[in-house]
Structures are given as structure tokens and as C-alpha cells.
Amino acid sequence: MKFIKEYTCSFTGHRPQKLPWKFDDFNKQCLKIKKQTKKEIKKLIKKGYVNFLVGMALGFDTYVCEILLDLKQKFKHIKIFGIIPCKNQDEMWSRELKERYLFLLTQLDEKIILNETYTKTCMKERNEFMLNNSSCLIALFNGANGGTKNTIEQAIKLNLKIKIIKP
After folding, report:
1. Is the pTM above the cut of 0.70?
2. Strand stretches in the chain, DSSP E
3. Which of 106, 144, 158, 166 has the most CB atoms in a 10 Å sphere around its CB?
């Protein structure tokens, strides 16, 4: 799949364990983040962005996917691509989280699976794939070291437009 970078946005953000509200998606702070994220995505759509690459992890990726699916009802031309690091990424997730994930997978315009099984580098490969095919990155970032910080640093090196949302 070839994306027109100028019209493609990727996302990165923390897993629930690193967020103040953990798995409580209805926490006031979480709802505020979702509202802010939706506002940023709508701005991009109005600027002509049509492709949205989502890493399909727990936490911010899940919120983003749900927001995009909601926006797709109004903006039918947008495309949502799940960039999946490995086929079995949900292997250790709870039944409830797996069900949510599998439902989201059925709603995507396309799934791109980068590896058959988990490897030490598959998450990094997923992030690099998204950045290399985007001109914009929206990040939920609390300043902590880890994959989100590394992805933002890589996006800076690649000269992507970056919007950081703080939890």
C-alpha cells in the first residue's frame, strides 16, 4: 500500500498503564483527551488529510481508532488503516480488550500486518512504517521515556508536523 504522505497522519501514545486514568475510558481527563484528539483530527480532515494510520495498540491507539470510526460517519471519504505490528499482538490481553480490538479490526478500511509473530523490534517497525508514510503525527505524550518518546524523536528527524497532546 502506498500512501500519499501529504494527506496521511499517524498516531502514537501511551498504553493505559502509563495514563493517569489507567483503563477508565470514562474518566473526566480521558474524555477531555478524546475530545481534544477529535478536534485535532477534524482540523486535519478540513486541511485535506484522508489517510489515518493507527497502530492498534491499547490506550491512545484504541481511542483514536474509535474517534476515526465516529468521524467516518460524517467524513465518508477518510480511510482508516490499522498498522498491526504482529498477528498475535492481542495474545496476552483480557477477553474484554480482545473483543474491543477484534471489533475495531472489522471496521478498518484496511489492515496491514507487518510480522507473523511478535519480535523484539515489531513495535518499533510499526512506528517507523507509520512515520515513513505520513506527514503528520498526533501524540498523546506525558514526557516519559519509551516508545512514544522514541516515535516523537524520530518524527522530528523526519520533519513531520507534530501535535502533542498532554494527558
Report:
1. yes
2. 8-13, 51-54, 79-84, 110-113, 136-140, 161-165
3. 158
